[in-house]
Amino acid sequence: MKQQFHPLRRIAAGISAAMTLFLAAACTKENNTPPPAKNTGVKTETVTKAGGISVCYVEVNSNSLLNTGKYTLTTGGQQLFDIAIIFAANINYNTATHQAVLYNNPNVSAVLTNKATQIVPLQNKGMKVLLSILGNHQGAGICNFTSRTAAHAFAKQLSDTVTYYGLDGIDFDDEYADYGTNNTPQPNDSSFVMLVDELHQLMPGKIISFYYYGPAASRLSWGGKRVGDMVNYSWNAIYGSYSVPNVAGLPKSNLGPAAVDIQATSQSTANSLATQTKNNGYGVYLWYNLTSTDKHTYFSGVSNILYGSTVKYTP
């Protein structure tokens, strides 16, 4: 089934005029990774609720990540969203060094560099904040690394970013790579497995999630290793539908078969997807495209089913 893209999803992959945060190790000194992380000031609350977790992607080119922290359960007071995802950083391709490069457009960079006001407040509420990674039409993606050395080099850029900005993990999204552009390789069976393996080793205890879509979705095992044994979560990528990600190794509690576009999926569909999620024993519900508009009534329909509570909005 073809991905139902919201127009905003194309923005993150299309911005080209901004600085590259991290280049591969062969690049010049001024382009190396940041200095060691500073104290982020995070004082995380323990927030638990029955009924699984809710995950929300935010298009930070046009909306504030902080909107995810404005919704709480009326009963119990827990946050509606357990994981907020910054959408999105990109994988660029350095044609001189033939290496994948982590790229943050100005809006993503603004969220990261202002972590004290954009990220830490959410973490202080008990939420986790991830950075989504996807292609940028340059031929580089998560599915065409041809050696473990290359996979490690990019994983190191990701782990350094997580450490420096005090993030809780990385989300992989295999879209917009345009494999083959700039004479880059086509997807192979080992790439994504090697990348996840390297990242898992570099940042133990952090979250790795997989947006179940693209070439990577059919390349989840290689060399005796399974992506499902190394990532924490995977969720359906087709908004308005119910489809269980086929990620061997992940239990039901860590899979999200329901996915909704907050701006496009009807209330009845969102409620139906929540009912299926609960009845079938899955533990993740995925939301996409949260804006500044108060949506607590819409969220309450799903929350009543998953958590037995309506949702309160605090601007």
UniProtKB/TrEMBL annotation:
GO molecular function per UniProt: hydrolase activity, hydrolyzing O-glycosyl compounds
PROSITE patterns, per database record: GH18_1 (PS01095), GH18_2 (PS51910), PROKAR_LIPOPROTEIN (PS51257)
Keyword field contains Signal: yes
One family name in Pfam for this protein: Glyco_hydro_18
Signal peptide coordinates: 1-25
Limits of the GH18 domain: 52-309
An annotated GO BP: carbohydrate metabolic process
Keyword field: Glycosidase, Hydrolase, Signal
Keyword Hydrolase in annotation: yes
Gene3D superfamilies linked: Glycosidases
Coiled-coil region(s): none
InterPro entries xref list: Endoglyc_H (IPR054861), GH (IPR017853), Glyco_hydro18_cat (IPR001223), Glyco_hydro_18_chit_AS (IPR001579)
UniProt-listed SUPFAM superfamilies: (Trans)glycosidases (SSF51445)
Entry similarity comment: Belongs to the glycosyl hydrolase 18 family.
Protein name as catalogued: Glycosyl hydrolase family 18 (Putative chitinase)
Organism expressing this protein natively: Chitinophaga polysaccharea
